[in-house]
Amino acid sequence: LHLSIRRQRQMCIRDSLESMKEVVNKTLVEKKRFLEKVSTYEQINIIPGAANFMLLSLNGFDGSDLCTKLLERGIVVRDVSSYENLGSYIRFSLGTSDQNDKFLSCLLDF
């Protein structure tokens, strides 16, 4: 019985790791796709992070105003404009391809 529980736990851990690797790989693929797409727009400046969080500025907006405008459209981002040298930036996290495309579309509407 003891070996059976230990084996089940190992299998559960292995499955969890595989699932996590799959999520990380999907995130990396989406991050690459999103960054390539955004790079074609001069009015958007991105500072990519090591994970799924990024900083973004949109020409003509301060971070606080941009945060408010996105929230009005149902998109929640973090206002980092009070941080040193980040007055025009917001922080966002990548979502699904559809969510990221909606986000980009909203940015381009402003």
Strand order of the largest sheet: 1-2-4-3
- Enumerate the spans where pLDDT stays under 50 for 5 or more consecutive residues: none
SSE sequence, one letter per element? HEEHEEH
Per DSSP, the total helix count is 3
Description of the molecule:
The protein is of the alpha+beta class and 110 residues long. It is 55% helix and 16% strand. The chain has a 4-stranded antiparallel beta sheet with strand order 1-2-4-3. Strand 1 and strand 2 form a beta hairpin. The longest helix is centred in the N-terminal third of the chain and has 37 residues, at 2-38.
Keywords:
4-stranded antiparallel sheet; 110 residues; alpha+beta; elongated; 16% strand; 4 strands; single chain
Short recap of the structure:
This protein is an alpha+beta fold and about 110 residues long. It is built from three helices and four strands, in the order H-E-E-H-E-E-H.
SSE blueprint:
Layout: H1 2-38, E1 44-48, E2 53-58, H2 63-72, E3 78-79, E4 89-93, H3 97-109
Antiparallel strand pairs: 1-2, 2-4, 3-4
